[in-house]
Specification:
The structure holds two protein chains of two kinds.
Chain A: H1 30-34, E1 50-56, E2 62-68, H2 70-73, E3 78-83, H3 84-88, E4 116-117, E5 123-129, H4 132-139, E6 143-148, H5 155-160, E7 173-180, H6 184-190, E8 193-205, E9 213-219, E10 224-229, H7 234-245, E11 252-255, H8 271-283, E12 287-290, H9 293-299, E13 302-314, E14 320-330, H10 343-351, E15 360-368, H11 383-401, H12 405-412, E16 421-422, E17 428-429, H13 434-445, H14 447-459, E18 463-473, E19 493-499, E20 505-509, H15 518-530, E21 537-541, H16 558-585, E22 592-595, E23 598-601, E24 607-610, H17 611-620, E25 634-639, E26 649-659, E27 666-676, H18 683-703, E28 733-737, H19 755-772, E29 781-782, H20 786-792
Parallel strand pairs in A: 1-12, 8-29, 10-11, 14-15, 20-21, 27-28
Antiparallel strand pairs in A: 1-5, 2-4, 2-6, 3-5, 7-15, 8-13, 9-10, 9-12, 13-14, 16-17, 18-26, 19-20, 19-25, 22-23, 23-24, 26-27
Chain B: E1 4-11, E2 14-21, H1 26-33, E3 52-55, E4 58-61, E5 74-76, H2 78-83, H3 88-97, H4 106-119, H5 125-131, H6 143-157
Helix pairs in contact in B: 3-6
Classes of the chains: A alpha+beta, B alpha+beta.
Chain lengths: ~800, ~160
């Protein structure tokens, strides 16, 4: 019955019943990027375009006594110099809280700080000029008088209220949460073994190679605002620009063209970006802002910065009885709008101990304000912390009872036949595959052989370590993530698909593309469901004026949610196409099929009509069709995951390292990941998401840290001093899969974008500590810099 | 800042003459004066490699060179080397192997990779990694990029394709 012919570009015999689904098709939209013909925001030029640069606080906490603009206003090319109160006439402040994060609080935040700056780098004035260089020249001429205030820099000081940062609050606690299954103390009391460790995680940030950027173009005649924005969530930003700039939502259009890296950095509301849009309204002309690298380090959201103490109770035979967690995390002076800065800590509480079947769990979380840059959701939100502390303490427990860490995990994983399952922290899992994944990983890495090799090398004074990390990952979030808390962030997405008169297909999708390959997989899904070749399908994303409404790209949701919308829309379009064909051919739709761009006889495969001919008739000669027939060759469908709060995925990572005990340097030799993201639409794209994610995770584990002085100054806010992984230091990464499709959608796809980042820090940390074990040293601080390794060894 | 200089240079094979501010960086000159926006600005302090260009046959950081310093020189950008086909092989290998995601680093990465292909045809995987260590890629984790470059080098060595 499968009479399909392989389309051009796909090797014969490579295309099964599932069409392009499961094929490593190259991304059609990558060609323009390879030729330098992508369009990033900074590549755009409009008539009367003005450029803005921001005057930022040099102090971590200071009252603004006076801002003097006279000299700056006289500088060449300067169009306007504006402070906070003047801009507030055009842009209302915001407060980042969510209803379901009970008790969360944050003060109102303005586009330009008014009266007081709360972190070094906060924008307090803006200069608009004919060029960015002129705007920066004028910045130098702004005279400011500051009254420095005490800066709260350390998390412990923040928690103790030494002093309280915001006068309207009684303390520095943005959000706190306590969770308790009950009987935790009893479980610890009856345990054979109790282990405890405190882990510290430094702040790091996304370092998108393209800085945050937007070009806001207000048209006073129409009272419309068009924003070309390097963003992950165009509809969310449309709503926010509309509400805070008092422009009807229908008059706001947000266009995301090529986006030069996002990883969660470009899904938040930034004051300087809101200021840019407000300045466009105020000045009635287009205004562009591109964060330069120094601004990026000081103002792109940071993430992590946790101090987590975790205890584990287990029996001598390796059964984990309970986890007990106390997590403290600092978020800067404001909760970030509109997703809040309470989510990462909340995720740590939800996910700690996640892969295991213990029954008792207690957690305390404190999220505190400090006078550093803000933190918020960055790739894998909370997962790297939860995985590292869980897997770190699990390794310690295994060591204490003298059991191999792989075996210890095997005994405690939630069994593959136990689903559906509710974890001790209350997470609901539809179907996970921890046991299959662990088996596959150990085989893939040849675990036993590596252990033997490790033992041999130790005799020669070579310290190799093998680290394992099990993980679960939140993907395909339902409205339970943000919507229920009152945030106007869509958890549903839509696809509108149209057969063109030429037989081509155009599909507009609300999920955006930042290089993950979203558009490629949507084309694969649409082509497969329609029965056309991929070269016939054109995908359009990133334009609120064009696509259906949706959430965009975050929380590993693009393939699972957007992909299902594309599938459902395509299926209906196919059916509608067959209706038209049946009328033209005077037969019934069931007798026909769409295969390789033609209408064919469903039984014999004989070509009856090309889609181009069908399109011609439907659009230009409908007079030849029966009077009571109207073709519908454009279809829109939406999808919202609702049966579970999240489509959890699972996976295991392993890291092989060698530690130089004289220098403290860690050499990454190899890294493995086996994960289960359900249906795999494009294996190569999934593997590359995993690899890229792993390397970002390794960055946090070994290199990346926003270092602050005691006065709240970021000391390494440039690319030379803030280290990220480079090609030379990175290992080859082996990726394997177990496939358990989610039953909540027909496509069965779960997310894969964050799994790498979630598990890598835990695996690398465990590998280092495995290497150091014979020396009775442990590193519990990330990043594990050479200095920290040497400290652990007692050498410095 | 009022100092201006007149420069004449060859950009992608075409002669260009402009009066420009003395402080203008080469990459800003290409992007803002000539509209050659394929060279990207990632850090403006010579670290990330996104602005990697070719000047008189050698790769340079477009943010560390002034446009004035390019007077009388030959500058090749991603646009020119794409149109001439010089990068076609690497571009095809990057495409097939998905050795790019967001694509912001890609023009600079291709410039650096091409330099390696021309000057170190026998580079090992480790040498490829070392050569590309001046170019940030925040998306791929590098593995696919190394694979793609290795594919091109090995095709050359087996005589499968020509540069």
């Amino acid at each position: 019955m499968n009479t399909r012919v392989a389309p051009p570009g796909i090797a014969p015999g490579n295309k099964a019943e599932s069409g392009y689904i499961g094929q490593s098709v190259a991304r059609p939209n990558a060609k323009r990027l390879l030729q330098g013909r992508g369009v990033f925001v900074d590549d755009l030029r409009l008539p009367r375009l003005a450029h803005v640069a921001f005057f930022r606080s040099p102090h971590a906490h200071a009252r603004i006594r006076k801002l003097e603009f006279a000299k700056a206003r006289g500088m060449p090319g300067v169009i306007a110099v504006v402070e906070g109160r003047a801009l507030a006439e055009y842009c209302t402040p915001w407060v980042a809280v969510l209803g379901h994060l009970k008790g969360i609080k944050s003060p109102p935040q303005n586009a330009l700080a008014i009266g007081r700056a709360c972190w070094a780098g906060e924008a307090v004035a803006a200069v608009v000029a004919e060029s960015r260089a002129q705007a920066e020249d004028a910045l130098e001429c702004i005279e400011a008088e500051w009254e420095p205030l005490p800066a709260v820099v350390a998390m412990e000081d923040a928690l103790a209220g030494r002093p309280v940062i915001h006068p309207e609050f009684e303390d520095n606690i943005c959000f706190k949460r306590e969770f308790d299954t009950g009987d935790v103390d009893a479980a610890f009391a009856r345990a054979d073994v109790v282990v405890e460790e405190t882990f510290d995680f430094g702040r790091h940030t996304g370092v998108t190679l393209e800085g945050r950027s937007l070009l806001a173009d207000y048209n006073a005649a129409e009272h419309t605002l068009t924003v070309y924005h390097s963003t992950q969530a165009p509809h969310m930003m449309q709503d926010i620009f509309s509400r805070h700039l008092a422009i009807p939502e229908a008059n706001v259009r947000v266009i995301a063209k090529d986006v030069g890296g996002s990883y969660g950095i470009k899904v938040h509301v930034y004051p300087d970006e809101m200021a840019t849009a407000a300045l466009s309204v105020m000045l009635r002309r287009p205004v562009k802002f591109v964060a330069d690298r120094l601004e990026s380090f000081l103002t792109d959201i940071h993430a992590r910065e946790h101090k987590a103490t975790i205890r584990l109770a287990c029996n001598r035979d390796g059964e984990i009885l309970a986890f007990d967690l106390d997590d403290l995390t600092a978020i800067g002076p404001y909760s970030v709008y509109p997703r809040t800065s309470g989510i990462e800590g909340n995720q740590v509480v939800n996910l700690t101990g996640g892969p295991y079947k213990h029954k008792h769990y207690r957690a305390r979380l404190n999220v505190v304000f400090t006078n550093k840059n803000v933190t918020c959701q960055y790739r894998a939100v909370g997962h790297p912390i939860a995985v590292a502390i869980t897997e770190g303490i699990v390794d310690l427990a295994a060591e204490k009872i003298g059991m191999d860490p792989a075996e210890f995990r095997r005994r405690n994983l939630i069994p593959d036949d136990a689903y559906p399952y509710t974890s001790a922290s209350g997470m609901k899992f539809e179907q996970l595959s921890h046991q299959q994944v662990l088996d596959k990983l150990l085989k893939l890495m040849d675990y036993d052989k590596l252990r033997a090799e490790q033992a041999e090398l130790r005799k020669k004074g070579v310290y190799r370590g093998i680290g394992l990390a099990a993980m679960i990952e939140v993907t395909n979030p339902s409205p339970a993530f943000y919507g229920v808390g009152g945030a106007r962030i869509s958890s549903q997405d839509g696809a509108a698909i149209r057969l063109e008169p030429t037989g081509m297909v155009t599909c507009m999708v609300s999920v955006t593309e930042q290089g993950q390959g979203t558009e490629a997989i949507f084309a694969q899904i649409a082509a497969t469901a329609l029965g056309v070749t991929m070269d016939r399908v054109r995908i359009v994303t990133g334009d609120t004026g064009v696509t259906p409404y949706g959430g965009g790209t975050w929380a590993s949701r693009g393939a699972g949610i957007g992909g299902e919308a594309v599938l459902q829309a395509s299926k209906v379009l196919r059916s509608n196409i067959l209706d038209v064909a049946a009328v033209i051919l005077k037969t019934s739709g069931e007798m026909l099929d769409v295969r390789d761009n033609d209408i064919v006889d469903a039984r014999t495969g004989e070509v009856k009509l090309s889609l181009a001919e069908l399109g011609r008739i439907a659009y230009f000669r409908p007079d030849t069709l029966p009077l009571d027939f109207q073709s519908e060759l454009m279809v829109t469908r939406h999808y919202t995951p609702r049966s579970y709060g999240f489509a959890f995925t699972n996976g295991f990572q392993a890291s092989l390292v060698e530690v130089d005990t004289d220098t403290g340097f860690v050499k990454l030799l190899k890294h493995w990941c086996v994960e289960d993201c359900g249906t795999i639409i494009n294996p190569q794209l999934v593997d590359e998401q995993i690899r890229g994610g792993i390397v970002q995770g390794i960055g946090g584990a070994l290199f990346e840290e926003c270092v602050y002085s005691a006065e709240g100054q970021m000391l390494n806010a440039n690319m030379a001093d803030y280290l990220v992984p480079m090609a030379d230091e990175m290992p080859d990464i082996i990726v394997g899969h177990v496939v358990t499709p989610t039953k909540s959608s027909e496509l069965g796809a779960k997310g894969a974008g964050e799994a790498g980042t979630a598990g890598a820090p835990g695996a690398v940390m465990n590998a280092i500590n495995d290497a150091l074990r014979p020396l009775h040293a442990r590193v519990t601080v990330q990043p594990a810099t050479p200095e920290r390794v040497l400290k652990a060894l007692g050498k410095v | 800042m009022d100092h201006s200089v007149e420069i004449t240079l060859t950009v992608n094979g075409a002669k260009v003459n402009r009066r420009i501010p003395a402080r203008l960086h080469l990459v800003d000159f290409l992007r803002d004066e000539l509209g050659l926006t394929g060279s990207h600005v990632g850090c403006e302090h010579g670290v990330c490699g996104a602005c990697t260009l070719r000047v008189d046959g050698r790769i340079v950081r477009g943010c560390l060179m002034l446009a004035a310093q390019a007077d009388g020189k030959r500058v090749d950008t991603i646009e020119g080397l794409s149109d001439s086909g010089e990068l076609a092989e690497l571009q095809a290998a990057f495409h097939v192997r998905n050795a790019l995601q967001c694509g912001f680093c890609t023009p600079g990465m291709l410039m650096a990779a091409h330099d390696l292909v021309m000057n170190q045809p026998h580079a090992t995987r480790e040498q490829i990694r070392a050569h590309l260590s001046g170019n940030y890629c925040r998306c791929t984790g590098y593995h696919a990029i190394i694979d793609a470059v290795e594919t091109v080098l090995s095709a050359h060595r087996t005589g499968g394709t020509q540069a």
